[in-house]
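Researcher: Structure prediction, please.
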Amino acid sequence: MIEPVFGGRFYERFTEGSDDGALHATVIYVNAPEALRLDGPFGLSGRAVTKLVSWRLEEAGDGAATVFHVDIALSGEVDAALAGLVSDVWRHFIGARLTPYVEAGCHREPDVRCGAWD
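Model: Predicted structure follows.
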């Protein structure tokens, strides 16, 4: 879940209704609807690593499409293998999860179960 407001959280609940979960990042910049920036470990909380992730939307061509830019900066205990893993995870997230979600129109009804991955 992402709370897209300044100071909001990007977090995961392991079990619905439980307090068990993980805080992946904090929202540190919002310029709706064009940009969002998050800072945190993004699932790497067991390592001395933090990520700064910036998302920016840009209208393409005649306005019939949107380009989604993702910029990632890693700091801390980072090596080439970790950088590659982070890149692969974001490619999967955008290509296999976010793109079908948006193309199916699920973002228009976020409280309704999305059938994009069925």
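Model: The beta strands are 9-13, 21-31, 35-40, 49-60, 65-76.
Researcher: Thanks, that helps.
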